């Protein structure tokens, strides 16, 4: 399967973009009410938890932290939550956020790679990343997120 790779230039500092991607205040807005739960120590669990099919504490995605450099890099393994895919452990992939200063902007690169053949979450991930990254850019630049007309 082809790697998913996206690059966005955001009118904000790496610290502002990082806050949107990592902090509970930011993630709740860009990930539809979910927050990241993790110590961010290499090898520790990372979970995106929020409202969903299993209630307020639905685990949408989880994995292990592979690398963590505040305001620069977050890399972790990615598994779909158990409520989405029965045999979720067979569908491991990897997500990498890279933040780089670019003039007065931040270049945000997201790479979702190491897909396993037959991963049923691939197409939905490709669609969702465009929305999540657009929300990230809009949140940093305007203080609010986009209304995609879903779930309302």
Automatic annotation (TrEMBL):
The record's section on InterPro entries has: ASHA1/2-like_C, START-like_dom_sf
One Pfam family, short name please? Answer: AHSA1
Q: What is this protein called in UniProt?
A: Polyketide cyclase
Q: Which residues belong to any copy of the Activator of Hsp90 ATPase homologue 1/2-like C-terminal domain?
A: 13-135
Q: Which organism is it from?
A: Lysinibacillus pakistanensis
Query: What is the similarity comment for this entry?
Result: Belongs to the AHA1 family.
């Amino acid at each position: 399967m082809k790697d998913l790779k996206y690059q966005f230039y955001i009118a904000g500092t790496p610290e502002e973009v990082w806050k949107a991607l990592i902090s509970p205040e930011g993630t709740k807005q860009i990930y539809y009410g979910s927050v990241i739960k993790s110590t961010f120590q290499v090898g520790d669990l990372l979970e995106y938890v929020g409202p969903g099919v299993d209630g307020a504490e639905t685990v949408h995605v989880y994995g292990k932290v592979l690398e963590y450099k505040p305001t620069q890099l977050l890399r972790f393994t990615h598994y779909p939550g158990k409520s989405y895919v029965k045999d979720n452990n067979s569908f491991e992939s990897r997500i990498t956020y890279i933040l780089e200063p670019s003039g007065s902007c931040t270049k945000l690169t997201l790479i979702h790679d190491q897909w396993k053949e037959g991963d049923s979450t691939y197409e939905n991930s490709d669609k969702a990343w465009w929305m999540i990254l657009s929300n990230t850019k809009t949140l940093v630049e305007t203080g609010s997120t986009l209304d995609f007309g879903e779930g309302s």
